[in-house]
Structure to design on (133 residues):
């Protein structure tokens, strides 16, 4: 993926910081927090600040190339996969897995008169790795 082109085609002016932040999100798949992104990239980009990371993620969300999720508590995490999917968080190791979902069927009668803007499915439990320890 040409990240600079992806940003530009989504009305975001590419900068070194924006490219590196999106590249990290896109390649890591670990649903990082602002702190995680900052810690991973600060050595590579000495001028990076947590405020820049936060503002960049906000811009990405506003332009539909990143989403934020809060699964447990109040810690915001970020995801560059925009295809519909669910998340599973392991209570033991804390890892968040992407879970593919097929067509989600909800009872139409319960949603009559509602307009759904987004759907989030979060599952919490113990992952396979932790269960086999």
């Amino acid at each position: 993926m040409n990240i600079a082109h992806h940003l530009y085609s989504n009305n975001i002016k590419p900068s070194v910081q924006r490219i590196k932040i999106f590249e990290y999100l896109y390649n890591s798949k670990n649903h990082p927090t602002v702190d995680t992104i900052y810690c991973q990239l600060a050595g590579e980009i000495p001028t990076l600040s947590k405020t820049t990371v936060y503002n960049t993620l906000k811009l990405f969300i506003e332009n539909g190339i990143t989403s934020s999720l809060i699964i447990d508590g109040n810690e915001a995490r970020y995801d560059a996969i925009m295809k519909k999917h669910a998340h599973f968080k392991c209570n033991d190791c804390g890892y968040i897995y992407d879970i593919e979902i097929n067509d989600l069927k909800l009872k139409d009668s319960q949603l009559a008169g509602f307009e759904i803007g987004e759907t989030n499915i979060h599952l919490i439990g113990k992952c396979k790795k932790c269960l086999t320890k």
Summary: The two ends are 37 Å apart (CA to CA). The mean pLDDT is 90. The CA atoms of residues 38 and 49 lie 7 Å apart. Helices lie at 3-9, 16-28, 34-41, 50-62, 128-131.
